[in-house]
Amino acid sequence: MNILKFNVMTPIKKVLLVSLLTVLFVSCDDFGNLNDDPNNPSQVRTELLLTDAQRSMSGVVGAVPGTLLVQYIGETQYTDAQEYRNMSASFNGWYTGPLQNLQTIIDLNSDEETAPDVLSGGSNANQLAVARILKAYFYQMMTDRWGMIPYSEALQGRDNFSPAYDDQADIYADIITELNEAVAQMDGGAGVSGDILFEGDMGQWALFANSLRARAALRIAEANPSLAEAEFVDAIEDGTIVENAEDVMYPYLADANNQNPWYARFQTRTDYAIHETIAEYMKGLEDQRILVYALPAPNYSNNDGVVSFDEIQGMPFLEDAGNLTNDEISFPGSAIGAGGPSVGDQGAPLPIITVAEMHFAMAEAAERGWTGDDAENHYLAGIEASWEQWGVYDETNFDDYIAQAEVAYGNDAWDVQIGTQKWIALFPLGYEGWSEWRRLGFPELEPNEFGVGADPQIPVRFAYPSSEVTINGDNYEAAVAAQGPDTPYTRIWWDVD
Fold first, then answer.
1. Angstrom distances, CA of residue 457 to CA of 240, 317, 320, 362, 364
2. 443 preceded by cis ω (within 30°)?
3. What pLDDT shows up at residue 343?
4. Residue 72: which of 445, 452, 351 has the closest Cα?
5. Phi then psi for 43, rounded to 5 degrees?
6. Does the N terminus or the C terminus of the chain have fewer Cβ atoms within 10 A?
């Protein structure tokens, strides 16, 4: 698996422990300043704010809801979520957590009075750049989930407790601008400290930002084609993670301080199994990746230590999930950290953005006429990169796989083929898989027939938190009037298919 490798164990543990046990402040004066208030220290450790914000990325890459909606994962006991019964979610924690931390970094590094005091976190320009990149990352995830959200008036604290909601078109345009300008403002000074992703390597941050900009541009391909094309092409020309063929992975620890969330979920419970939809589709094509996405179902395993396709049994939609025992279904594999106490991997990394995703994006861009690249080459490179990511690449098996009519390029509409293969490759990144499924419409997923309502449908957004109705009612009502009913079935701006 090609991942960004870091020696993060000891320093990260120390940083995380400090960030959890302190309020992220230290005194900047010496012992002799007796008039200083020890309960109101004056210097902020921006490197700790950065680490804390990056830790929140785990809440994106390791989240469950998207995996249920896009049928990567099925619930084995409590099935309300996959029956679409609770599609209201709060976004408040993203504002008060990582986004506020990042805004504080920006404020301190932008103010002439405080900028010299926070250089322990890296050069001012580089801290600003990284904070802007991460803000764009979190905001894109949020606007893709809810649609219109507070953006331009957000993060003002006591100056504005009732921020207006911004149009998603404006949010996306600004996210793309932020990513572009962030790379442009990087200087040759010290790289950022407290960085658990790239250890302060600003070259890696630039590739990451360009890749995120390409992802954002492609997302709006149907809603704003001209902006999408211009920004996608520019991002690719500036250089993405394809340049060094390294996936960007979240680096969990073999330690409870920052462990893989799928590992944690399986320590005392077995609530999630590989879903029948993805399992059966991949088994039908003898896709080697399913052998690491899932574990053998005990009743189907020959216990020889080698996983075979017929040992994988996905979890179907059932009116009563209890009709199947744990022995009859496959749990997610240890490749993503899951699998239970005996086979889980506490420190297994999870993907943030991968080379495979970028190749599929470039294949689509070629089909749209944005570039002169060969779409088939990028499509096949995307599949190959995904097989390599999961450590299953074998030339013979791979050649047999891509020769199949359902996989070979050009035998169907490009959106069917790219959409389906991208869906497989994005596992277990549920929110991204769900967004790309909404945008492209493929693969054609059947909704849970036991879902809520007379005619169950797969939700296409999350409803706003109920707290917005009471504490930000006027702006909430304005957003609903502009966007449409606050239900899980109102399409957001870029979802025009």
1. 36, 14, 19, 31, 27
2. yes
3. 82
4. 445
5. -115, 125
6. C
Question: What percent of the chain is modeled with pLDDT above 90?
Answer: 86
Contact 67/278 with Cβ under 8 angstroms? no
Tokens representing residue 493 in the block: 């701006």
CA distance 406 to 119: 55
- CA distances for 95 relative to 23, 205, 213, 434, 472, angstroms: 17, 23, 22, 22, 15
Q: How many angstroms separate the Cα of 167 from the Cα of each of 401, 463, 493, 497?
A: 43, 16, 8, 19
SS3 343: coil
pLDDT in tens, 111-159: 999 999 999 999 999 999 999 999 999 999 999 999 999 999 999 988 9
> Averaged over 183-200, what is the pLDDT?
97
> What pLDDT is stored for residue 304 in this prediction?
87
Task: Return phi, psi of residue 86, to 5°.
Answer: -140, 80
Q: Which two tokens stand for residue 151?
A: 């953006």
Sign of torsion, CA 488 492 495 497?
A: positive
Cα separation, 40 vs 31, whole angstroms: 15
Q: How far is CA 117 from CA 15, 38, 110, 122, 433, in A?
A: 19, 18, 11, 11, 42
Nearest by Cα to 356 from 386, 394, 401:
386
Residue 64 · residue 272 · CB < 8 Å: yes
Q: Model-level pTM? A: 0.91
Mean pLDDT within 288-306: 94
**Least confident range of 48-52, 130-134, 331-335, 402-406:** 331-335
Q: Confidence class of residue 203 from pLDDT cuts 50, 70 and 90?
A: very high
Residue 391, sorted as left (phi over 0), alpha (psi -120 to 50) or beta, turns out to be left
**8 A C-beta contact, residue 65 and residue 145:** no
Beta bridge mates, 247:
3
* Residue type, position 320, single letter: D
Phi, psi of 75 (to 5 degrees): -85, 140
Rounded to whole angstroms, the Cα distance separating 248 from 154 reads 28
Contact call for residues 205 and 129 (beta carbons, < 8 A): yes
Position 303 scores a pLDDT of 87
Residue 4 CA, distance from chain mean position = 16
Choose among 17, 68, 25: nearest CA to 46. Answer: 25
Task: Please state, as a whole number, how many other Cβ atoms lie within 10 Å of the Cβ of residue 123.
Answer: 19
The contacts of residue 11 (CB under 8 Å, 6+ apart) are none
**What backbone phi and psi angles, to 5 degrees, belong to 353?**
-155, 140
Alpha carbon 362 to chain centroid, angstroms:
19
Residue type, 125: A
Q: What is the reported pLDDT for 306?
A: 87
